[in-house]
Amino acid sequence: MTRPHRIAALALTALGACRGAPAAVRPEPVRNATPPARVVAESAPADWREVPADELLVMELGDGGRVVIQLAPAFAPVHVANVRALARGGGWARASVYRVQDNYVTQWGNGGGGGGAPAAPPAGVVEQPPAEFERTLDGVAPRPLAYADPYAAATGHWEGWPVAYDPRARAAWIPHCYGTVAAARGNTPSTGSGSELYAVIGHAPRQLDRNLAVVGRVLDGMAHLSARPRGSGNLGFYDRARGETPQPIVRVRLASDVPEAERPRYEVMRTDGAAFAAYLAGSANRHDAFFAQPAGGVDVCNARVPTRPRPAAR
């Protein structure tokens, strides 16, 4: 048994082995927790799972940047179906990245007003999807974090995703953590079709939780969204009068539609295993040389699920 797996027993005690809400009392710190980077380095292939190709959205930008997004059909099935239809039907043919608001979001789609009239929605796109802002907790068994959260009754991880949930209301949702991708919308009753998307690029704006449909998260290329020049217009929209030019989107495809030889592959750490338990314990109890004072806790947005390109040799 590897060291991270030996630590897992301690991790499960510290993080709560039960499947309900987190303990009201903060757990005792894990004194000999393995640093999270070491847990990842020492993990076994069985500790990871590959992301299906039809759940990877590949966006290519005019400046050569590429952003890869993992879709979340288990949380917003109609919106994700729309995103797939838009990708396959050329729904972003004249789209751009047109909004970058500091410490908040980067937004893209046809709403920037550049490149001519937006393309008509492809066949199969539901223009007014249901409000998929949360899903039922039925069938979802999160590994709970044992620390209080100001925005939800409980938080944890399920099927490789960070989740917030309410055991009494039987509801679960993906929180707005760094890199989260969701469908922009207008005021109610608008829910957003998914043709206009945004990614969180700043401190987690959790006040947005359960107010918009989360469709996924950025797995790779985050710098092509977070490091863009900020827009000087209202809410970070680019102001063309000031010479601020939206970044054109060249192409958006599902990885399953990319030729096999060029297809990107990624994997995420399994969140129901011993390695991830050790990773969480290490994240909450940093004892490596740099840390003079371990935090003794971690919130769901800082307990980021490890992801990586899939190794070529398997």
How would you describe this protein?
The strands form three sheets. The protein has an eight-stranded antiparallel barrel. A five-stranded antiparallel sheet has the order 6-10-9-8-7, with no helix packed on it. A hairpin with a 4-residue loop joins strand 4 and strand 5 (105-109). It is globular. The protein starts with a helix and ends in a 5-residue tail after the last strand. It folds into two domains: 3-49 and 269-309, no CATH class; 53-266, Cyclophilin, CATH 2.40.100. The chain contains five helices and 16 strands. It has 314 residues and is α+β, with helices and mostly antiparallel strands.
Quaternary arrangement of the chains shown?
single chain
**Overall geometric form:** globular
Largest sheet: 8 strands, antiparallel, barrel
Helix content: 10-25%
Which runs of at least 5 residues are low in confidence (pLDDT < 50)? Answer: 4-19
Share of residues in strands: 15-25%
Number of domains: 2
Enter the CATH topology name of the largest domain: Cyclophilin
CATH classification class of the largest domain: Mainly Beta
Secondary-structure element string: HHEEEHEEEEEEEEEEHEEHE
Query: With helices defined by DSSP (H or I, 4 residues minimum), what is the helix count?
Result: 5
Helix/strand/pairing category: alpha+beta
CATH superfamily of the largest domain: Cyclophilin-like
Give the tally of β-strands. 16
**N-end to C-end Cα span:** 21 Å
Mind telling me the C-alpha Rg?
20 Å
